[in-house]
Amino acid sequence: MTLSLVVAAGTTVQSVPQAIPSSSELAGKFLWQRGGFESPVACAIVPAGVVAVADSSGEFVGVSALDGSILWRTKSAGDEKLVEPSAVAALPDGSFLLCDRRRGRVEHYATSGAWIKRFAADTFFGRPGSIAVGTAGVPPLACVAIVDDASGEIVICSETGEVIRRIGRETFKKKDGSICTPSGIAFAGFGRLVATAAEQNHVFVFEPPQGSDPVRVLQVWGGRGPFPGLFNHPLGVASDGNWIFVADQYNHRISRQDARGQGQLAYGQHAVRPREGEGAVHYPTAIAVCRDVSIGSSKRSLAVVCEPFERRIQAFEPGLDAEPVDIRLVLPKLDGVQSHFGDSVAREGQRLFMHDPESCSIVVFDLSKGQPLHVSNVGSAGAKPHEFGSIDAMVGLAGGTRLLVADGINRRLALWELTPPPKEIIFEPFMARLVKTRPYDRLGLPAGTKIVGLARGPNDLVLALSEEGPSIVTLDSSLRTETAAPISAPDTTARPCSIAIGQSGVVGVLFDRPAILCLYVREGLSWRSTETRTLADVACANGLVAMPNDEWLVVDSWGDSVTRLNSEGTASRTGSRGVADGQLWLPGAATIGSGGEIYVVDGGNHRAQRFSSSGDWEMTFSLGRTYTRARTADEVLRIRKKTDGPVAIPEDSKQ
Amino acid sequence: MNPIAPRVAIALVLCGAGSLALQRVDAKPPWKEVTSNDGSWRVKWRLLVDQREVELPVPRRRFTIELKLESTCTPPQTPRLIVVDAQMPEHGHGMNVAPTILLDEQGGRADGMLFHMTGRWEVDVDIDDGCTVERAQWNIGMY
After folding, report:
1. Between chains, do A385 and B83 touch, taking CB under 8 Å as contact?
2. Contacts of A484 in chain B (CB under 8 A)
3. ipTM
């Protein structure tokens, strides 16, 4: 950053030597942003000046490349409803292919947003998660590449939908030989494809084979970290035929590099504070780039970044006037704010556990003094037994001296032991030690399944909810299986997301969209369904808490609230969308305290909040701060901007 | 104290009827024992440098950990696989090398261990019984 001193109007005196320009200053110029989405996870651009956005809440939206204004929106594909749009790609004629992950469909839409037909209708896709259109082979043929998240395959189809080749995940090996799972896909010019592997933090450039020839992997790079050439959960990928652009989600940036992984720059600047805008990037999941886009009366290059965490998309003008000799890659500016809380929480005894998805560690709070005090961290990112790949669910055991964690990337349960609380509350970095792990593949569950929920039963028995099936596995305190049995699931596309045990022993399983609460009782070795409640007012269920008096608490991420269901079936709601205390932004999980108070992980605001048992706001806390006087939205935003406000973008650059 | 030198003790030994004599005894470092973190295994271990038993490893010099494993479960479990690793928790890193691990009927050994700096090292032994993988751990202070 260049520091300068303005002496008089029009006169600027340099007060310090010229610094090396940062990569974000060089690599992309902010143009506009568009909010109003629920979960914009992917986008595509056509030269006619339309940006198509896949909103995973079930909507397909077209916006103008000029200013981001809405051109059209649709929630249907023919006579069917969209359920989870996950990816979109533009065909050369300006039409779009849209993946619907939950329906296992790829739909074809015109530039105007009108549905045309189902693409590759005879082809089975388990969960199409990413799509790209380009040319490959000799002679070059137009084709479509689709990542099937269910199988980990990349399916190469012709433009008319015939399957040309399936590329298995065994193709994508890191240098140590371990296999990666593709996440994002793009054509990178010269017949090459580029795929990201988000869980393994790698990028692969490869050539699709001729006939049955093996796939030729041309380049592999990556690893977990913030420095050039490293990633932290790279999801979406795009290419303009020259450069490769990667949505590096947990590094909060778009990295740009060539097909050898060289010359990395970064778009945008890490958004430290929620709702920080205009060029600051927060948890991007996808990027689209396009040359020669009609914008007004001119044609220019355009890059659009999707940020579901901010419920918005941002447009940049990519390209550099001159490639800089030296690059200072922008690393996250933490400013003391590190409370990146993910979608799981556990409370046992006087201990509260939340997790940070960026560092893959668990933060431990002590509740014995009335306010949550941060007393330890557990684990770190990695593949060793005492490290985490991801944290999908947690449950506290043995009065808070044990913690069981479901790790979906390393595919295992990990049991930790913590020392009992000392008389004086101090930060103890080595409070926890790993006791044991149990691989998912030894739970007798369907291959590839993940544990998405954990609950503590009587005698420290643990119930683990398996996504596929779905099934409930009962484990003893040594992680040995007592029973594993499927449960009857509602006949919808909803997926199980959370499990809790009520006071009377009834087991509640929450399904996400449509939100459904199913209750089960154990009969011998199996589970009998006793009640099914459809929660029409819950947009996206994400966490379940068993409350006293046979009540249930459901966390509604997209509804930015928690819903309390009483035994008569009536519901009351706490929270609304916003940043003020008492408001929530994409809440991920909740738990109940020993006195009936409710802790809600307000992940989208980088904080947690405590509510009374009746739903009144009591306090807001995160790492290193707690307060009990409620602040308005203006006060919260003013405090966030106090030390270092967002970069002001001149009006003339907003176009 | 030179960590390689055998422990030397002076002991009073009763020799013959009522006679006392001073005798020099070279005591080898005994096997040390820990219980795994969920109590399923008794793990005895000792260190070898250049095939000689030692009290402590030597910084920046390869060494071996010999292990004896005994199941405390009923019925007894058999280890299918063991992984031996070490880390410095205060520094947030592990070793720069990957040891070679051999498993036999009595236990096993990890050859090629290397502590590349002084400080507190935590040795982790992960024992896989085919169902769960349980950890035994102990600290080695090298100051």
Report:
1. yes
2. none
3. 0.86
